[in-house]
Specification:
two-stranded antiparallel sheet, single chain, eight-stranded parallel β-barrel, globular, alpha/beta
């Protein structure tokens, strides 16, 4: 039987607690989920290290694209060190060239660092290639690059903004991966879309499981301290997806 896993991306301490309480299998730790996630603060990394679940750190130094200069590459390298030193289970990284092909040279350097750090602590860092993959002009070629580099999994929505709109591509990626690398489906994953996404053959799903929360203080939104619609990780949404994944294991 193939065990299906739920990874929940969270951006604060409440999200960590909700992911744990709802029965998630793994946490992706980040900040700024509304723009696809950025590197979280070190204080949150230390808090997440106490969670009873594997935690993977998203290392993304800024919003926008994934062509990184020397200074940004150094920031990501430091984020990888932070994850290893905190005792987290893995890192989520990605870099591209100006034509959106994967930047294999940069990724190789980060992976070598992650392996060295994992060896030093006696526990390897799990490696996820983030959705920079979805921008690649040739997903099949990008998958082969990810395999050659040694990634454990690819977080992908199949080259579309939402995973549910790319079921044939996800199916092809799962087939092409052939067990050499995991395919983690993410973006727009919910109770409504999960059944169709599972039909692609994926065994890991990635979701924010957030719901809108009522505005508590209009002044916070008016002054720009809250987004127009505030969202937080919903324990019930986590539990629903976790249950759906476990009752449909193959």
């Amino acid at each position: 039987m193939t065990r299906r896993l739920l990874e929940v991306c969270v951006e604060d301490a409440r999200g960590i607690a909700a992911a744990v309480a709802g029965g998630a299998d793994r946490i992706e730790l980040c900040a700024a989920l509304d723009i696809g996630g950025l590197t979280p603060p070190a204080s949150l990394v230390r808090a997440a290290a106490q969670a009873p679940l594997p935690v993977h750190l998203l290392a993304r130094p800024r919003a926008g694209g994934f062509v990184h200069d020397t200074a940004e590459r150094a920031l990501v390298a430091d984020d990888i060190r932070t994850a290893a030193e905190a005792g987290l289970a893995g890192v989520v990284i990605g870099a591209s060239l100006s034509d959106h092909r994967l930047d294999a040279e940069t990724l190789s350097a980060w992976i070598a660092l992650a392996r060295d750090l994992g060896a030093a602590r006696g526990q390897p860092l799990s490696l996820t290639l983030h959705r920079v993959f979805d921008l690649a002009p040739d997903l099949a070629a990008a998958l082969e690059t990810a395999v050659a580099l040694g990634f454990d999994r690819i977080l992908t929505s199949g080259g579309q903004p939402k995973a549910v709109d790319a079921i044939p591509t996800l199916t092809t990626l799962v087939d092409r991966a052939a067990g050499r690398i995991g395919i983690l489906a993410g973006s727009g994953v919910s109770a409504a879309t999960l059944p169709a996404i599972l039909a692609s053959g994926i065994s890991e799903a990635h979701a924010s499981c957030r719901s809108a929360v009522p505005e508590q203080d209009p002044a916070l939104t008016r002054f720009g301290f809250n987004p127009p619609v505030a969202r937080q990780t919903d324990i019930a949404a986590v539990a629903t997806l976790a249950t759906m994944l476990r009752t449909t294991e193959t």
